[in-house]
Amino acid sequence: MTNSEQDKHLLEGVALNDRKVIESIYRDNYPMIQSLILNNNGNSDEARDIFQEAMIVVYEKAISGSFELHCQLKTYIYSVCRRLWLKRLQQLQRYGSLAENVEETVSVEEDLEVHEKHNADFIMMEEAMNKIGEPCKSLLDAYYIQKKNMQEIAVDFGYTNADNAKTQKYKCLVRLKKLFFAQFKNGL
């Protein structure tokens, strides 16, 4: 399923008030919004409030029947949350006399551009991980995702000791790096 098909499915689920879809949107997007708010003079309660307000906006758009999404849903949610937060900061006047110029101070386009660049890099890395093959994929997953130490990996993968596991991890990283940068070059 492409991103746009998946986003369309998510919007339909929101319009139908599908609990699983709404939970999925929260799970996939809330950490990014919490980080935005916490890094910009907010707290976790404010992050929850802003995200909830954005979900109401998404719901209202989804049930309107005429809403057309021209970017990824997570980009739209980020943009809505960002605008809501900037408005809240203006109301609270946390920036004092700068509150009037807050839109000029923080550019939405720059934020979205950086976010989209990171998203594209993650997609390329995911594709490279899918191409790397076994046992490298599982070994890197064990180390970086499952946070296992080299001794545990040596036992799990049948290496004679942690140093051999570490050497294999290094070789896998070199292969991953080559795959990633080959894709990166082709993407330019």
General description of the model:
Helix content is 78%, strand content 0%. The two termini are 24 Å apart. It has nine helices and no strands. The protein has 188 residues and is mainly alpha-helical. It folds into two domains: 1-106; 108-188, Arc Repressor Mutant, subunit A (Orthogonal Bundle).
Secondary-structure blueprint of this entry?
Blueprint: H1 3-15, H2 19-38, H3 44-64, H4 73-92, H5 102-105, H6 108-132, H7 136-145, H8 150-157, H9 162-187
Helix pairs in contact: 1-3, 2-3, 2-4, 3-4, 4-6, 6-9, 7-9, 8-9
Question: What is shown here, in short?
Answer:
By secondary structure, the protein is mostly helical. The protein has helices at residues 3-15, 19-38, 44-64, 73-92, 102-105, 108-132, 136-145, 150-157, 162-187. Helix 1 packs across helix 3 and helix 2 (19-38) packs across helix 4.
Radius of gyration: 21 Å
Stretches with pLDDT under 50, minimum 5 residues: 97-106
- State the helicity in percent bands: over 70%
Largest sheet: none
Query: Mean pLDDT, rounded to whole units?
Result: 81
Q: How far apart, in Å, are the first and last alpha carbons? A: 24 Å
Number of strands: 0
- Helix count, DSSP H or I runs of 4 or more residues: 9
Give the overall silhouette. Answer: elongated
Our count of domains comes out at 2
Structural class, please? mainly alpha
DSSP strand content: under 5%
Order of helices and strands: HHHHHHHHH
